[in-house]
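Hi again,

Forgot to attach this to my earlier email, sorry! This is the prediction with zinc ion bound. I've pasted everything inline since the attachment limit keeps bouncing my files.
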Amino acid sequence: MMYFPSFVYLYNGGRTESLRLEEVSGYLKNIFRNSDIQIRDDFVGHYLSGLSPEEKEKAMDSLAREIAGIKVRNTVNKDIIFEPLPGEIEYEKQRISDPQKKSFGILYDGFKLMALFSKLIPEEESDFNHCHIIFTNQLFGTWDGGDLRYHARVSVYGFPSVISTTGIVEAPAKPRKFYMKRRMGFNITTLKEEISGRFIDYDDPRMTEVMKGYALQAIFFQGVGEPFCDDKTCRLYNAHWQEELLQAQLSSSERDHIGLCPEHQKIITQSLS
Ligand SMILES: [Zn+2]
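Structure tokens for the complex follow:
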């Protein structure tokens, strides 16, 4: 029985050299041997490349406006309605046209970002046999109805799935002493040095290895409806702490190349038979 999509597209918008999508693609190819895994440009760039010059100019203007409109203005109020400022729209337009430009200090609404990207997927790739995994360096968050605030996230899974190379640094919690000392006024750079190795940092050489697991979660979400696993040594473990994420993604890959628990390994085996 085949649960998994026949086509998987990895969009290269992480904007960091430490994310090597050829390796992620090779890893997935080794697991999903019946699927076609393709690497594409950054998602919006890929979309724009299919348009005529006039259409492209128009699309860039409206996309820049829409993206500026889904910025989180206030992390403790999700209902603020606002018009993006001309400078914000211009910033987004530049970001779209320059694939190297990084985005810093902006938090977007993750589900709105997913919805916006979803509209750009062409009809012929809009069924569940096509899995779109968008890597971006945009930082996004989702509203938590429990403590009534936005929390930064590494990924949102859906159609498409979106994974952030900034979120992987900022979202999972660092060791507790980092926050304690930060509140006491210690310098962030010094604090990061103190816990070095125990969290994923910007341009971290382990980024590629870690992101393999997040791509896998996106494919499991689409294939079987559940991206996560309770086993702390499985790549599908939903880590909330940096140290957990390193354990799930790195120690599992030392055990064997794939890094899945026996139960998830079995789902893969069954899907191939
Ligand atoms: Zn598992």
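The chain is about 45% helix and 15% strand. The beta strands are 7-13, 36-41, 107-109, 130-136, 139-144, 149-153, 155-156, 161-164.

That should be everything now.

G.
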